[in-house]
Amino acid sequence: MRDVSMYKVETKATWCPGCGDFAVLRGIQMALAALEINPNDVLVVSGIGCSSNLPGFLKSYGFHGIHGRAIPVATGAKLVNPDLNVIVAGGDGDGYGIGLNHWVHAMRRNFDITYIVMNNQIYGLTTGQASPTTEKGQRSKSTPAGVIELPINPISMALVTGSTFVARAFSGDADHLAKMVELGIKHKGFSLVDVLSPCVTYNKHNTYQWFRERIYRLEDNGHNTKNLDDAIKKSYEWDAKIPIGVFYETDRTTYEDEEPGLKRGPVVSQPLGISQELGKELLEEFE
């Protein structure tokens, strides 16, 4: 196992003290160390939101994109260079709201990327509005009388849409979180790791204590991760009991393995088909 410090940067994370996203950052660092992946073989892509600041706090390649558009950037990078370990980091608003359509299509196509969603069930960056995963009836700045909509169930949606690895973690259980991220990165295919990451500033309902009273590990209860029907049933457990761990894992050919344009190898390794002089002229246009 590599030293976790090799994935750290001098920049201090700017999240609120106690934010669950600190544990996610640590979990990614621990997972990369356990898998002994070099920082220059990792690309972390994010959108907009508190959680999406994560690439700046991790020693790797990073791309901070626009709201809800992290997955298109990530899949594009993976297609050009399939050898990269591509991780998408975002929040429930960025991923399950404006970015949901991209998420769905990336799952059904089975791109070999790992999507880590810091799900705090609130819009944190914009100071506490209801998000797609906010529970019905919960009061927020945008829903003073209580949410009247049903929340998104990201686990069940991932299962029925085609994600080949579906897991949930909790920021209050850092070692288990790191293991889920490690398994997600190791898996070949689309991996979702939905992290229950409490927002200590704006979500006073889904707190660390609230989760600790309900959470249990699937692996401690003999759950069969190869059984899709069982996984779907478990995905609907909420409130009284909330499972964390791997819900489902299966093998399926990835999009990259079937893409005709990659039969000759990674795009980054293929000749451009232009002269050296023309290539130099094109590069000079960006200087």
Output the keywords.
single chain, 8-stranded mixed β-sheet, 10 helices, alpha/beta, Rossmann fold, 287 residues
Q: How is this fold's topology laid out?
A:
Elements: H1 21-35, E1 42-46, E2 61-64, H2 70-80, E3 85-91, H3 92-98, H4 100-109, E4 114-119, H5 154-161, E5 165-170, H6 174-186, E6 191-196, H7 208-212, E7 215-217, H8 228-235, E8 242-249, H9 255-258, H10 276-284
Parallel strand pairs: 1-2, 1-3, 3-4, 4-6, 5-6, 7-8
Antiparallel strand pairs: 5-8
Describe the 3D structure.
The protein is α/β, with parallel strands linked by helices. The chain has one domain: Thiamin diphosphate (ThDP)-binding fold, Pyr/PP domains (Rossmann fold, 3-Layer(aba) Sandwich), CATH 3.40.50.970. It is 31% helix and 16% strand. The chain has ten helices and eight strands. It has helices spanning 21-35, 70-80, 92-98, 100-109, 154-161, 174-186, 208-212, 228-235, 255-258, 276-284, and strands spanning 42-46, 61-64, 85-91, 114-119, 165-170, 191-196, 215-217, 242-249. It has an eight-stranded mixed beta sheet, sandwiched between helices. Helix 3 packs across helix 4 and helix 5 runs antiparallel to helix 8. The longest helix is centred in the N-terminal third of the chain and has 15 residues, at 21-35. It starts with 20 loop residues before the first helix and ends with a helix.
Shape: globular
Kindly state the mean pLDDT as a whole number? 94
Count of the domains = 1
Quickly give the structural class. Answer: alpha/beta
Percent of residues in helical segments? 25-40%
Q: Helix segment count? A: 10
The count of strands amounts to 8
CATH architecture: 3-Layer(aba) Sandwich
**Run of helices and strands:** HEEHEHHEHEHEHEHEHH
Radius of gyration: 19 Å
Report the sheet-strand fraction.
15-25%
Strand order of the largest sheet: 2-1-3-4-6-5-8-7
Query: CATH superfamily membership, which one?
Result: Thiamin diphosphate (ThDP)-binding fold, Pyr/PP domains
CATH topology: Rossmann fold
- Which residues form runs of ≥5 with pLDDT under 50? none
The profile of the biggest β sheet is: 8 strands, mixed
- Roughly how many Å apart are the termini? 41 Å
CATH class: Alpha Beta
